[in-house]
Amino acid sequence: MTEVDVHGPVDFVLIEFSGDRLTGRAAQELVSLVERGIVAVYDVTVVGKTTAGEVYAADLASGEVDVGDFADLAWARTGLLGDEDVREAAGAMEPGKLAVLIVYENTWAIPFVAAARESGGELIAGARIPAQDVMDALEALEATEPLQATT
Q: Could you name the domain of life of the organism this protein comes from (predicted)?
């Protein structure tokens, strides 16, 4: 088995932004993750939802919608995301907002995945736990009992 045969977990995120533009450092940080080999980006799509509830996908390269530095990711179009994905993403959005839908591979995990497979390991379950849920659970535990170090 070569490393070409091995992939890291592939995830998607939908990040909704306030206002009608995508600004700030988010796109720059995503590009940095790609440059450092931490993730590989497959698709980036900007999804918009008008105040009337109409759904649209913004072309990152056109300049018709201010997508900030996400325009630098216009190359990320494998075709994995389609119209149905855009409609489903919009279902989670508030009217009048823009969101960025990103499909990416966790390339940092490739050496671990390769080693596990070489040892006969097989992924039989996996899930993503939202960070805020973990932080809330840890805070609740800490409030009832101080955290103990394990050895």
A: Bacteria
